[in-house]
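Re: the request from the purification team.
They wanted to know what the chain is likely to look like in 3D before they choose a buffer screen. I agreed to run a prediction and write the result into the notebook, where they can find it.
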Amino acid sequence: MKKSTRVNHPPNVEVPAGNRPVVAPIYQTVKFEFESVDDTLRALSGERPGFFYLRSSNPTTRALELTLAELQGRDDCLVCASGVGAIAQTLLALTRQGDHVLCFLESYGPTRHLIRRTLARFGVSHTLLSIADLDAIERTLAGRATRLVVFESPTNPINRIADIAAITRLARAHGAMTLLDNTFAGMHQHGQYDIDFYLHSLTKFASGHGDVMGGAVIAKAELISTLRQDFSTLGGVLDPHSAFLLQRGLKTYFVRYRTQCASAQQIAEFLSTQPAVERMHYPGLADHPGHALAREQMSEFGAVVSFDLRAGAQAARRFSEALQLFAMAASLGATDSLVMPPQLLGSRDLNDEQQRRAGLAAGTVRLSIGLEDVDDLIEDIQQALTAAQVA
């Protein structure tokens, strides 16, 4: 074999039976081959196991999918290149012209855009309610055939708690499927409920380090099978190296998540005593409207602390700019703490009345708590509150 051929066909090294790597390898390959045409056709038809093309599956991405499914208490999962990709591809795969979707003011901005703008262009209608209005949810489902109920808990950005049992019961009674964006709660929570599809931005707590993007939809195997062809055709594939980094991040997921939640609780308790703070939005506080429901539904209350500064938007801007240990950046769930002032919270598609119903105020600030020492974070918050009031 000539050397120019050898570099394209290197020697094959197989790990002997009974001798396996402690850390699974990255299958950084787009293509797989079989010994014959017949074997290839059997694999493509599902008659035998195997891999053919990265856009459909890959051993590294598949290992991540199976891990995530088990964490959420379901059979199967599909991963893709971003959290928004998971939302978009799932919505496109599940809806068609003439369908109706029930969604909520208290939700991630891109989710609202996908439902209110993208799906609308293809003839999918929607109703936009508040997650707290169970009577309106029941009236809507009883009065109109609905394909999907799309919601979050806790909600982004102010941690409202959805009554998951009530919403799933109403949806099931009226023949609607449920799709829960479970990103704030994490992969290990809410699996006990009768949810059809769980969505996650893996960019957040799964990665945990703010250096890789990914998304996932998790469900029973028979439901995932209805999405698989559309996910492959839409092409928003997660590359194997990102899948490897996400799988590595999951090794410290519980340690990180529980530590961040414990720090968030302390920070929320501190903020609740500050005169500059008009209202807290953290479900771990006993006076949070959803505290009892959160205690029933969740094992931890989350790592996002939101609150309203009494002095409004400019004070919130000054507070955010004065913080030294919180990066003013999008996303959440990373080892570093982050802040989002009201000017960046992404609710510009809602009018003033809708923002009021969603619980957003002029001075709403969202903190994502990282792994810094909690006393250092509280000291930083204290000095930023002082700076915001005297400026």
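For the purification team: The chain has two domains: 57-250, 253-390.
Please add any questions underneath this entry.
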